[in-house]
Please model this.
Amino acid sequence: MEEPGPAAALPEGWGRDERSLEALSLAGGGGAAAAGRQLPEGRRATLASALELEGTVLREGRLTQFVANNLERRIRLSGAPRGEPPAAGGGSSIPAIDPGALQDVVALAGQVAAQVDELLRNVHCGLQALTALSVGCIQTYRDGVESLGEAADLSIRAMYALVARCEELDRAMQPVPALAKRIRDMKGTLERLEGLCK
Model:
């Protein structure tokens, strides 16, 4: 952007009108800058000093940069209606709080609190039911394990008793082979006697 033309002072309401440096130079110079003519140094200095009151002016050759002070306030003023006065201290005005809206919020908060209480009660009842079911399952498992242990113990005892009876029976059956041999001998003797008697 080229350097702005001269101006005696900033136009009134400059912050609201949001005029650029080019518009100010055109307004102050009577269209001289648009025509490409060089402006007197004094009038250029006057415009620069007027801009320096509203912000910071930086020059780099033929390029002039302007940074406005209190830019946030100027943006708010530019968006405000024309007839509305600016807020005091440059801050945004806070609208009044509607009592009816507050009552609605309080009522809704009460409803939410009641629903949360009901939800917590339902969750508590559900947790109690799950806990009772878990306790019942654990007790059943414990009883099953105890019963299985008792049954296994009884089975082991019965097995030992059977082994002992088998050992006793084995000891009792030890004379049987000798008795069988004697019976065979007696049978052979009887057969020989029968052969002699014929």
About this structure: Residues 74 and 130 are 64 Å apart (CA to CA). The two ends are 160 Å apart (CA to CA). The chain has six helices and two strands. The chain has a mean pLDDT of 75.
